[in-house]
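User
New here, help please:
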Amino acid sequence: MKRKMYVEWYWYVLAVCISASLIGNAVVYAEEEGSSFPIDIAFDATYASAYYWRGASAGAGTSFMQPSADISYTAGPVTVGTNVWYSQGIDGGGENDSTDNSEIDYTVYVGASLGAVDISAGVIDYVIPGSFPFAEDHVLEANAGIAISALPIDNSITFYMNLAGDDDSSMYLAPSLGTSYKNVGISLTAGLALGESELYGTEGAALVDITPSISYSIPGDPETSVSFNIGYNPNSGLKMSYVTLGTSFSID
């Protein structure tokens, strides 16, 4: 029997608030003592009208709150960090209990900035609802990517591979393009399943995601933005349009 998560969303919000308070006090103390605080802390809170992930509807119901917390340390061009991301459906979707569409992801990562080229690698532990048939409790995934910003259009490509919790050891490739002008950003992301995968619903290599997005940063508050997205899976025929509204703040 698969274990479901029954931790209410407000406990995560409380934990984030307590952490922010403790870290904020530490930063103030460090500044008063005349020493620098070598760790960057960032918090993000996002509302999503639907949860679309890699060509699939990843959560039952509509309307999701998706906060995250990130802690990183940078030395020269190299950054190491960890991130915790949580998703909780506000609407449980009909007969499903609202806790059935919750998820929490734990990430560790390392990256290096080499001029206009950024490289990164990491591992993500997805703690997912028991309604997902392909895994028990966790899916562990490794990733590696490269991003280039020297061209007129920013572009990146990231490779993902499941290490545990998935008998197919599913592999996924996500190239993306993006550009911005003043407060408006436009991006296009694609997703390719690289082989047979129950997770991605494929019997072989297939294009499973095409997602164009347009975002708008609020004037005077560049950390707050709203985006409109259209997700389409050519393999399954799934189409989803959704809106996200997010804001973030950092301590560095």
